[in-house]
């Protein structure tokens, strides 16, 4: 019925999207969802070109970056993906995911994401550790990164000092930049405070 897998997927996705009344949030995960799965590259992938052309503009497309688990995300790569998909992607960030190897737990700060990335994204989803309490630092430092990004977007001439001023000097609020090390230190302080608070609760 369809000349390609991409056209089949886009057709089905479009029909479901319309049948549901074109909801404000509708996510589509392509078969080629990172650069390493594209042949020969995102911009030259016939599959992604078809998805970009055929998928209705209200449907958001998920992307994980250069790889399934991407150590770095650059604005240049996201510009390439946006051009071929004809929409800004939603990043499904697997930086902390450990479902593929539960012997590993990731407790470091959110890092490896270029400054100013927000303007190239339609959204960002964080795939966390499987262990619930191990995600305090990942989510806390993601929040710090996000606020610094919001500040930079809202006040590009002032590096976002207003938007992040409430976060304190330890997060680089003075110049609006995001420091993974400072974000980690702040997260650790808040985590210790949380642990101490929980220890005082009855039955702990």
Automatic annotation (TrEMBL):
UniProt-listed SUPFAM superfamilies: (Trans)glycosidases (SSF51445)
InterPro entries with a match to the protein in the record: GH (IPR017853), Glycosyl_Hydrolase_84 (IPR051822), O-GlcNAcase_cat (IPR011496)
Transmembrane segments: none
Gene Ontology MF, one: beta-N-acetylglucosaminidase activity
Pfam family of the protein (one): NAGidase
UniProt cross-references to PROSITE patterns, sorted A to Z: GH84
Species of provenance: Phainopepla nitens
Any single GO BP term: glycoprotein metabolic process
PANTHER family: O-GLCNACASE (PTHR13170), PROTEIN O-GLCNACASE-LIKE (PTHR13170:SF23)
Location of the GH84 domain: 1-150
Protein name per Swiss-Prot or TrEMBL: OGA GlcNAcase
């Amino acid at each position: 019925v369809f000349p390609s897998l991409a056209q089949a997927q886009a057709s089905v996705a479009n029909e479901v999207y319309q049948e549901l009344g074109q909801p404000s949030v509708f996510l589509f995960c392509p078969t080629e969802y990172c650069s390493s799965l594209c042949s020969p590259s995102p911009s030259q992938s016939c599959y992604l070109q078809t998805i970009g052309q055929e998928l209705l503009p209200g449907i958001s497309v998920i992307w994980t970056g250069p790889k399934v688990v991407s150590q770095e995300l650059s604005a240049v790569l996201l510009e390439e993906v946006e051009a071929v998909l004809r929409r800004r992607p939603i990043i499904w960030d697997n930086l902390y995911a450990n479902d593929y190897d539960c012997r590993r737990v990731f407790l470091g700060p959110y890092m490896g994401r270029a400054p100013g990335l927000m303007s190239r994204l339609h959204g960002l989803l964080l795939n966390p550790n499987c262990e619930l309490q191990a995600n305090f630092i990942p989510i806390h430092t993601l929040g710090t990164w996000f606020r610094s990004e919001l500040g930079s977007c809202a006040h590009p001439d002032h590096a976002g000092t207003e938007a992040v001023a409430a976060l304190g000097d330890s997060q680089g609020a003075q110049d609006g930049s995001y420091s993974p090390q400072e974000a980690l230190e702040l997260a650790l302080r808040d985590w210790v405070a949380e642990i101490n608070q929980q220890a005082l609760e009855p039955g702990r």
